[in-house]
Inverse folding.
């Protein structure tokens, strides 16, 4: 997957269903659709939604890793990659290049055990182009896969595996579970991504045979959702897909439930883990099994929230972790029930298991009440609407029902199954699937800490890749594929014209100011009966002292842990009973209270926000738990290469004197200095409406919002809060290479950049325009095309400017195969240095096409609209700034971009940071030309 998700892309339980409300009878909510089937077997589902001038197109093949064979794994995931590269009529670069031109959100895909999908949302005028392109991928693709193409994409997939599995904490947990829960011949025995050995050994004939068997119209569902003409769309679908040949008969995947004759315990010493993690996995049920509904409620009740038995036992009583995760992983032919606990440092996992057993005993005694069942269902209503807030979300759910339930209209039965769950059902499924049943237990612990694993555990078999200099196969990605084109009744090489240009209307923004100083800004939108809001209190880490970094982050967490008149559990129940969410978090520059609710419950939700803001509980037990949890985060970050890169890059960019150089959660030293009195002091000095902004989007009017804030404005005492001026970081006068050693790293994490621009600088948006073809445009960018598509060095690479009211960095970021670290850094340097002189008319045309046309979908979701309000209220942008930026794009010329790149892109004046294996990679980096690399953690270098 381009942004890989091996778990199901959809939210398994919150699929379409009749809405439940505690105080109202259930009412049916329908996502209207039309379904038809072409003569070749292609299933087509159409859903019209005219709320925005966009269309989502998704092509879903009923093939995942479960259709593979032992020794030939990873093919479904491989094709998820290959299908974006080239097809006979789209040409090299395929859909990725077209996506940039038409203003699409970026073609993407995902692979699961049972299906592979390809999807994108585009402006409505590009619908025919998308249908043409998707048909070309399905019927006119396989001839373009040649030996060089296959060799290159094997390297990309290998890099994805290193990034997603091998070079991260607990990355091999799922693999160990799958191999021991499912028999060797079971289709779920292997990882979706497959084995590197199988992938390396795969021949071109192997790969083509797999494609021709499964990627055929009678095994595919095409979903189109959005603003389109149904009759015209049917004509296009028939034209472009109709003559693609039907494939062989597709055998039905029979259910293959598994059972365990004994409990199996395994352990593994994880090179990237700093905390012990226990995962228990029980055999469960397939997707849409009648018992899956009660099992979902059981998972929520046992593990989520302060009332949950597992939370009470492990977090409150034993104090050995800060969270428990319990969930279903249900697939087409079988399922598994997974409980995962990452314990605090040096905690023996036998103590964790003891706490789990105690929680189960408590549940067996008390069960689940009707009130708690209603509370859980209340949250489902909000989640349901949230899933439907985009046309792509609607399309996904319709395809989900079609493929795994056999009917997009399965919504009706799904509704009945969800609403039929009783307290007795919840206890029944617990006793049937969990109580006293055998399970797979995995203990993943830091190196040298095998004394923490469960008693009776045996060492798990984990295949660790050894990366050797010069081992990888060479390939030439520039070789053009030669092949005979597949016959067609018309000339498919002609790309369809655009349809009628969409009428892009920016949301209407309202603003208001109160006597207290609190500012409010909002957008009224009634597409779904939801509200999303953000209360921003400026300051964050900027208002901390260097010896107590982490205070604002801990304060934000503590704010939602009860109020003066509500215990933490009572506050949590009050929020959940409304079907609402309220969470608080801190950034470098602010504390935020974010929430969502049904529109009908908005006023009650805001009343709880007011209580949180004005009446903190200052619960000492919760403070101590937050402190321990923060310490665990700090410890774990020390082993995660990407976290190391983020924290070390901040130090290098801002310099040790700047408050912004710190990790906002603090470090082990600052954490020791923080007490609850420090949080109270920060709150007393810095919590004020005078530095706060309330941003809201959804089905409420300005008048309703202003009325809801009346009490808060009266009661929240205003005070003068001085936001400090952040010193401008020193300019980089000469590039240097910095290296942080992670022995045995399978990838090198790269960060290259310098202190650049604030979002309020006049050149900021122009610099973003300039950066689009460098690294900001995904697959349309030079960095991606050369390092991923051309060389196979990386799974992903990007570049960006990220300022606020303070100057932020320009940064290039990637993770590359360890043994080509030098080559990757050298190529990045070369691309940056040549960017200005190589920038041409095509680069400008692609950039303009994407940035102008993408405005049609820029503010489709509530979240996107909320982001718009944030920029207007924080950076003093005009309400129609999107239109102003469009005018800038239209007027910019090649020489403007070249001047910008000469001004803001100088590879000789940047910081180069590499996180990797010093023993094998450090010495060679001297050849870059920036002197001897500076080791940042010399003490651990071999």
């Amino acid at each position: 997957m381009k942004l890989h998700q091996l778990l199901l892309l959809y939210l398994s339980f919150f699929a379409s269903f009749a809405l439940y409300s505690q105080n109202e009878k259930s009412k049916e909510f329908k996502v209207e659709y039309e379904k038809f089937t072409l003569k070749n077997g292609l299933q087509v589902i159409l859903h019209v939604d005219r709320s925005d001038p966009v269309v989502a197109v998704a092509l879903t093949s009923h093939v995942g890793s479960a259709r593979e064979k032992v020794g030939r794994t990873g093919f479904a995931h491989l094709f998820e990659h290959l299908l974006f590269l080239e097809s006979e009529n789209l040409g090299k670069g395929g859909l990725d290049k077209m996506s940039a031109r038409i203003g699409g959100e970026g073609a993407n895909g995902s692979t699961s055990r049972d299906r592979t999908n390809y999807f994108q949302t585009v402006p409505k005028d590009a619908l025919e182009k998308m249908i043409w392109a998707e048909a070309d991928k399905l019927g006119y693709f396989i001839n373009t896969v040649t030996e060089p193409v296959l060799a290159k994409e094997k390297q990309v997939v290998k890099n994805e595996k290193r990034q997603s599995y091998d070079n991260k904490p607990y990355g091999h947990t799922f693999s160990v579970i799958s191999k021991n829960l499912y028999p060797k011949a079971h289709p779920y025995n292997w990882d979706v991504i497959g084995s590197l050995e199988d992938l390396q050994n795969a021949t071109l004939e192997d790969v083509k045979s797999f494609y021709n068997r499964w990627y055929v119209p009678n095994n595919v569902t095409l979903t189109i959702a959005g603003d389109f003409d149904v009759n015209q769309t049917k004509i296009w679908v028939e034209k472009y897909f109709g003559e693609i040949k039907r494939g062989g008969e597709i055998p039905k995947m029979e259910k293959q439930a598994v059972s365990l004759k004994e409990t199996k315990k395994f352990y593994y010493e994880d090179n990237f883990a700093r905390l012990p993690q226990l995962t228990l996995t029980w055999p469960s049920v397939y997707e849409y099994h009648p018992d899956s509904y009660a099992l979902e409620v059981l998972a929520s009740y046992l593990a989520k929230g302060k009332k949950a038995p597992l939370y009470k036992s492990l977090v409150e009583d034993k104090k050995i972790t800060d969270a428990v995760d319990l969930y279903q992983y249900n697939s087409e032919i079988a399922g598994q029930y997974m409980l995962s606990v990452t314990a605090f440092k040096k905690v023996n996992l036998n103590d964790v298991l003891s706490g789990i057993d105690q929680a189960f005993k408590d549940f067996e005694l008390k069960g689940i009440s009707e009130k708690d069942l209603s509370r859980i269902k209340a949250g489902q209503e909000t989640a349901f609407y949230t899933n439907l807030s985009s046309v792509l979300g609607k399309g996904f759910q319709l395809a989900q029902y079609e493929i795994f339930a056999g009917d997009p209209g399965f919504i009706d039965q799904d509704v009945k199954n969800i609403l039929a769950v009783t307290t007795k059902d919840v206890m029944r499924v617990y006793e049937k699937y969990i109580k006293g049943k055998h399970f797979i237990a995995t203990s993943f612990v830091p190196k040298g800490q095998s004394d923490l694993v469960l008693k009776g555990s045996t060492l798990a078999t984990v295949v660790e890749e050894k990366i050797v200099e010069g081992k990888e196969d060479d390939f030439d990605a520039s070789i053009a594929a030669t092949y005979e084109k597949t016959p067609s009744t018309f000339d498919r090489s002609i790309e369809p014209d655009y349809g009628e240009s969409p009428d892009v209307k920016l949301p209407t923004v309202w603003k208001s100011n109160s006597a207290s100083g609190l500012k409010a800004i909002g957008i009224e939108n009634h597409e779904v009966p939801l509200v999303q809001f953000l209360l921003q209190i400026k300051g964050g880490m900027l208002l901390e002292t260097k010896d107590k970094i982490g205070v604002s982050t801990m304060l934000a967490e503590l704010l939602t842990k009860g109020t003066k008149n509500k215990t933490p559990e009572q506050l949590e129940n009050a929020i959940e009973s409304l079907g609402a969410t309220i969470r608080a978090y801190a950034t470098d520059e602010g504390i935020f209270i974010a929430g969502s609710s049904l529109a009908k419950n908005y006023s009650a939700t805001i009343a709880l926000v007011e209580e949180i803001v004005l009446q903190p509980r200052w619960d000492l037990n919760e403070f101590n738990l937050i402190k321990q949890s923060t310490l665990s985060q700090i410890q774990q970050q020390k082993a995660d290469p990407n976290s190391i890169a983020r924290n070390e890059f901040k130090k290098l960019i801002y310099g040790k004197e700047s408050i912004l150089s710190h990790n906002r959660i603090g470090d082990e030293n600052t954490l020791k200095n923080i007490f609850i009195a420090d949080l109270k002091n920060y709150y007393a000095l810095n919590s004020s409406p005078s530095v706060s902004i309330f941003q809201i989007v959804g089905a409420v009017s300005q008048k309703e919002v202003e009325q809801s804030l009346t009490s808060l404005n009266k009661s929240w005492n205003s005070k003068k809060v001085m936001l400090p001026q952040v010193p401008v970081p020193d300019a980089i006068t000469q590039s240097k290479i910095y290296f942080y050693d992670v022995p045995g790293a399978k990838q090198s994490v790269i960060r290259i950049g310098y202190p650049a621009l604030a979002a309020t600088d006049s050149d900021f948006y122009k610099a973003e325009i300039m950066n689009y073809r460098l690294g900001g445009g995904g697959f349309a960018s030079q960095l991606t095309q050369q390092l991923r598509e051309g060389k196979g060095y990386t799974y992903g690479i990007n570049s960006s400017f990220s300022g606020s009211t303070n100057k932020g960095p320009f940064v290039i970021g990637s993770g590359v195969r360890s043994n080509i670290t030098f080559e990757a850094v050298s190529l990045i340097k070369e691309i940056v240095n040549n960017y200005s002189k190589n920038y041409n008319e095509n680069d400008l045309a692609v950039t303009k096409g994407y940035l102008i046309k993408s405005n049609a979908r820029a503010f489709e979701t509530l979240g996107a609209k909320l982001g718009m309000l944030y920029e207007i209220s924080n950076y003093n942008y005009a309400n129609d700034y999107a239109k102003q930026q469009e005018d800038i794009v239209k007027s910019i010329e090649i020489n403007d971009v070249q001047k910008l790149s000469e001004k803001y892109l100088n590879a000789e004046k940047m910081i180069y940071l590499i996180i990797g294996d010093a023993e094998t990679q450090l010495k060679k980096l001297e050849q870059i030309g920036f002197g001897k690399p500076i080791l940042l953690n010399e003490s651990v270098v071999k």
Observations:
- DSSP finds 32 helices and 28 strands in the chain.
- The longest strand covers residues 530-538.
- The chain has a mean pLDDT of 91.
